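User: Let's play a game. I give you a shape written as tokens, and you guess the letters that built it. Ready? Here's round one.
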């Protein structure tokens, strides 16, 4: 809040541009202090609390009183005034105020602007204490009066020290003037004042601070005034309105309202020696100096038309008024010629036009004033509401919370302002860059246009020359002074060249026709080759199917127990002959690859001897399906992915229904690495942004500090993907990469550390992403973002809950198969538990496995449930034919590898098993997780009871043995 009002006018109110200094009455008595302070030692005291009493320390004495006179000359000639920030109001907000020192009363008045006449308050300096905080904001200092504490803030530290020093020195000067003996002469007063000032200036006081340029004195009035509505004084609205109205009246062009507190009388300053007529004082014009006319650029030129307008109404014969520029304005209307009257009329019209423009500006200023008052009123209402809430609060804690809330709101607003400023700077830079780019483009266009114009001129000249040569070739040749013989030779050469051109044209046409015919022949042969290859692939697929059916019949005959011994021997011989045949000898056109692009073996090897026949059947079915689908299905999927990813960067991908459908049907090998990296980065973006170099730091930590799970990791390395050619060799570099990835993850997630099964997940990620860091983040995404909590911990609660949920889904989707398995006491969780832990790694053919992972990164664990149910649905009929529990278990161990038609499997998983809501999956998972936790607590309770009972039983046995020994003794 502002200080007390009702004080007299601003002694430093200025017409903008320069402040006329007002000398005090006793100017000669105040020149004591400055040079004395300059002679003090340059020492600073960090804590400053200067009271009004004597300091008690004596300063060095000057040699004479003239030193004191010279000391205060600089102080008296500089008006102590300038802008400072003042803290006020219940919210302790900073407000921009104009401060000026009144030497007669030793008071510090403050105004809203330097042009205001009425002050907003004053500070009594006679009994005040000056200080500044050590840990406060830069430029902050305090003035403590008996009534209140004034907290002020200068622009910088130098300005703060200057204000403190000047206020203290001028207060000493004022005190010495009051205590001076009136009987002493002026010289004696000066000497005495200087001596007293020396006595009151301790040697350890602040050294003389130079005047901060542009912050104190006349230059400070030129500083721009803040137009913030919150800078308006709310406690003194009437004073604000009076100052605003007076500042507006100073701008009016009329003669009576252009009068400011600083004006010049042309009759008294122009030519004092000349006699002037007796004119009443009421009609003597005064030359008013407005804020616009007092600008430092043109003080004389702007005052001249004011003087002329002020004297236009006078009609005294022989009266001449001197202008500030030395010219004289003759005011004799009786002898004025006609052209002079016309000029006067024109001048009056221009003056009226000028007054009209001035009035328009005044209306605009009035509107601005109304807007400022509205803003001030809104700010006052807000402050009033805040004060009412603050006063209505019951306890100090609630008030403190209100203040904290206000501080938080202010901090939020400051953050938003800073953010908007940064955005503005960014947009401004972007705009500047675009402007520069546009300028460059314009320059380029201009340059191209100039080049085009030059080329057009050259073309026109050449065209004219060609036309002239065609019209009169002899004239051109004669101009070059060519002889007749030379001309004939040139003509013959031209004719021969024309003949050669015609011959080349004919030869070119012939060669083009030959090339066209050869192209047609090549296209025909290519089409025939393609058709033959398709027929060959179809015949080969048919042959594989027939051979597979033949081997299937042999397998059924082998399982038939009704055959005689001779028939069984015959069937066994046929099976051995079929297994000894090499598949590569059958396929002539397309040789069978042993490994795919990622190093997985295409035809699996079964450890059981009886499964070799099944392996051969599966290999033939895989070959048949690949031959029939490679030209149709794979090409269509590749074309759709190429269309979707065309022209997009890896960071431009976003989740969409189209991408979801494409991921379900699988990612082509060409795009799988790129899409996997994008999906992993999307899942782990927040973690990677917080720890950009996490993998490198964890690798360094693994090298320096051994992890408790490092031994188990080393043992599991050689059990990882043994059928893959990248991990089959003990010296393979892929094993070292896998080792570093697993150790880094163990350090990154101490809750999981290492669990068997993580090695297979990381190995598959390494094969596809081909980068250790990407594989590490892929493992983090699976364990921490895709899989449920406690899936890989020591208790494996998440995995066990998923097995129970899967059994419920299986009972709903496949009731016949579940009844058949229950009839033979088959627990599918013994087979499916490993599927869920490693996401089918080493349980599926590589092409189907990678398609499952493509959808898994997009949709999460729901994909595992879908495909697990789809496998049982795919082979439901085959499982129902087996009526022995051992045979069922043996079949379930490898039946997933016999699935060859990936399209049929995908159709079953995402179409036949619908609906499959994720909400239902989460609810069932939560229910079974709670049941498992209750069972685990019950089990722990039983373990504790058993441990206590066994301890008691041991104690009883020991007591019994001891008693028996005593009896024997």
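Assistant: Ready! My guess for every position:
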């Amino acid at each position: 809040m502002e200080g007390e009002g009702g004080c007299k006018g601003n002694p430093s109110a200025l017409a903008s541009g320069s402040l006329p200094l007002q000398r005090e009455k006793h100017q000669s008595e105040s020149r004591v202090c400055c040079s004395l302070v300059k002679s003090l030692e340059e020492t600073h005291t960090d804590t400053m609390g200067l009271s009004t009493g004597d300091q008690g320390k004596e300063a060095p004495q000057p040699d004479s009183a003239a030193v004191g006179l010279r000391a205060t000359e600089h102080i008296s000639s500089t008006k102590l005034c300038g802008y400072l920030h003042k803290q006020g109001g219940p919210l302790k907000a900073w407000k921009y105020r104009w401060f000026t020192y009144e030497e007669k009363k030793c008071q510090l008045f403050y105004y809203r602007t330097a042009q205001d006449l009425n002050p907003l308050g004053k500070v009594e300096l006679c009994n005040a204490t000056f200080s500044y905080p050590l840990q406060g904001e830069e430029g902050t200092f305090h003035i403590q009066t008996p009534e209140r504490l004034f907290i002020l803030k200068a622009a910088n530290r130098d300005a703060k020290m200057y204000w403190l020093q000047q206020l203290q020195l001028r207060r000493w000067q004022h005190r010495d003037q009051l205590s001076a003996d009136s009987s002493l002469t002026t010289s004696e007063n000066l000497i005495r004042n200087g001596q007293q000032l020396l006595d009151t200036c301790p040697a350890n006081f602040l050294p003389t601070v130079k005047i901060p340029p542009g912050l104190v004195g006349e230059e400070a009035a030129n500083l721009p005034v803040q137009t913030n509505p919150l800078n308006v004084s709310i406690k003194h609205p009437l004073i604000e309105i009076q100052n605003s109205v007076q500042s507006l009246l100073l701008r009016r062009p009329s003669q009576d309202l252009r009068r400011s507190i600083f004006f010049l009388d042309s009759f008294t300053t122009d030519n004092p020696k000349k006699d002037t007529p007796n004119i009443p004082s009421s009609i003597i014009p005064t030359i008013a100096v407005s804020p616009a006319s007092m600008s430092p650029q043109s003080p004389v030129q702007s005052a001249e038309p004011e003087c002329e307008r002020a004297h236009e109404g006078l009609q005294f014969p022989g009266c001449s008024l001197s202008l500030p520029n030395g010219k004289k304005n003759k005011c004799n209307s009786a002898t004025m010629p006609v052209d002079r009257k016309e000029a006067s009329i024109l001048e009056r019209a221009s003056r009226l036009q000028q007054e009209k423009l001035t009035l328009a500006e005044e209306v605009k200023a009035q509107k601005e004033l109304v807007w400022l008052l509205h803003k001030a009123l809104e700010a006052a209402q807000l402050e009033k509401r805040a004060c009412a809430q603050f006063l209505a609060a019951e306890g100090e804690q609630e008030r403190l919370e209100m203040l904290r809330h206000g501080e938080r709101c202010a901090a939020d607003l400051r953050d938003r302002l800073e953010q908007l400023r940064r955005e503005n700077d960014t947009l401004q830079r972007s705009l500047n860059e675009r402007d520069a780019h546009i300028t460059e483009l314009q320059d380029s266009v201009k340059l191209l246009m100039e080049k085009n114009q030059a080329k057009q001129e050259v073309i026109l000249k050449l065209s004219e020359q060609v036309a002239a040569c065609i019209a009169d070739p002899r004239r051109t040749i004669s101009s070059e002074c060519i002889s007749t013989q030379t001309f004939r030779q040139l003509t013959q050469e031209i004719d021969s060249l024309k003949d050669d051109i015609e011959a080349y044209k004919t030869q070119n046409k012939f060669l083009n026709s030959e090339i066209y015919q050869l192209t047609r022949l090549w296209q025909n042969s290519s089409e025939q080759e393609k058709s033959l290859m398709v027929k060959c692939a179809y015949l080969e697929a048919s042959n594989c199917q027939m051979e597979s059916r033949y081997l299937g019949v042999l397998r059924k005959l082998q399982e038939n127990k009704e055959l005689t011994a001779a028939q069984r021997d015959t069937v066994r011989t046929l099976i051995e002959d079929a297994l000894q045949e090499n598949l590569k000898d059958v396929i002539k056109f397309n040789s069978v690859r042993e490994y795919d692009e990622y190093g997985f073996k295409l035809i699996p090897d079964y450890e059981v001897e009886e499964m070799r026949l099944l392996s051969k059947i599966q290999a033939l079915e895989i070959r048949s399906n690949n031959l029939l689908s490679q030209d149709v299905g794979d090409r269509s999927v590749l074309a759709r992915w190429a269309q979707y990813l065309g022209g997009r960067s890896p960071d431009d991908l976003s989740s969409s229904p189209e991408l979801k459908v494409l991921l379900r049907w699988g990612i082509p090998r060409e795009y799988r690495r790129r899409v996997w990296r994008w999906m992993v980065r999307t899942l782990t973006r927040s973690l990677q942004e917080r720890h950009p170099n996490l993998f490198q730091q964890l690798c360094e930590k693994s090298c320096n500090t051994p992890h408790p799970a490092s031994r188990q990791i080393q043992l599991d390395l050689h059990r990882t993907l043994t059928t893959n050619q990248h991990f089959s060799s003990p010296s393979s570099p892929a094993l070292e990469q896998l080792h570093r990835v697993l150790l880094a993850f163990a350090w990154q997630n101490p809750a999981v550390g290492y669990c068997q099964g993580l090695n297979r997940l990381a190995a598959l990620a390494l094969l596809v992403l081909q980068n250790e860091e990407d594989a590490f983040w892929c493992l983090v995404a699976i364990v921490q973002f895709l899989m449920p909590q406690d899936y890989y911990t020591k208790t494996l609660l998440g995995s066990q809950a998923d097995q129970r949920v899967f059994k419920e889904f299986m009972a709903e989707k496949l009731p016949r198969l579940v009844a058949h398995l229950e009839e033979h006491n088959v627990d599918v969780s013994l087979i499916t538990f490993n599927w869920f832990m490693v996401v089918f790694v080493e349980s599926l053919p590589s092409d189907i496995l990678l398609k499952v992972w493509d959808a898994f990164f997009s949709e999460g664990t729901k994909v595992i449930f879908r495909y697990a149910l789809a496998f049982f649905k795919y082979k439901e009929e085959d499982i129902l034919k087996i009526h022995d529990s051992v045979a069922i278990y043996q079949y379930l161990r490898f039946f997933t590898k016999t699935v060859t038609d990936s399209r049929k499997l995908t159709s079953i998983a995402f179409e036949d098993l619908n609906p499959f809501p994720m909400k239902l999956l989460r609810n069932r998972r939560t229910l079974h997780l709670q049941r498992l936790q209750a069972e685990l607590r019950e089990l722990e309770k039983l373990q504790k009871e058993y441990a206590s009972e066994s301890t008691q039983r041991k104690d009883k046995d020991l007591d019994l043995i001891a008693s028996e020994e005593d009896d024997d003794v």
